[in-house]
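User: Can you help me understand a structure? I only have the sequence.
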Amino acid sequence: MANEFSLRCYCYLDRMQPQYAAFVGTITQGDLPTSGMASLYIEMAPGNEVFRMVDIAVKATEAKPGAQIVEREFGMFEIHSHKQADVLESGRIVLDRLGLSAEDRIRPKVASVQVITNIDPYQAQLLNRWRRGTMLVPGQTLLVVECAPAAYINYACNEAEKASNINVVHVASVGRFGRMWLSGTESEAITARDAAIRALENLEGVDG
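Assistant: Let's start by predicting it. Here is the structure, written out as tokens:
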């Protein structure tokens, strides 16, 4: 198993921000998180390993599972709790059972960044058709960040909201790439961009 298993993402959110937590609540199929909770995302390959890892994580502490997803290539799960210690301990036990450390995760890479000013009303309407967060208003600046592995985008979004007065439009964190769409003024978008990129680049890991 050691030769086959890949710890694609291991990212800890110390405090879920209000908008990010609210967005997650619109898409989660498990226990609903709330603002202020600590959260942990773990993505792996092969995907079916996620079922065993979730079982280990939720039996270790009182942390609750919010997501358990298996798609064609990868598996991902999320746990959260008001107690940071519970989330950290569940994560530690999962890593211990795998014989790995957090530094064995794949280091995130920023795939693309776009800052689009003065969004046109028609483009805003196209994005609003499928977004699950705040509506994009014409004239705002749109920030789009893409990274790999995908689950790291959750960490990037949460850190962006910490640093700026930005609006969370949508986050997609399943598949080969993760993407987030944030909106606000141009200065807010740039602040959010810098915070997200800095957060991802500061995570240690191995090259994927």
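Now, to help you interpret it: The first strand starts at residue 6 and ends at 13. The radius of gyration is 17 Å. Let me know which part you'd like to focus on.
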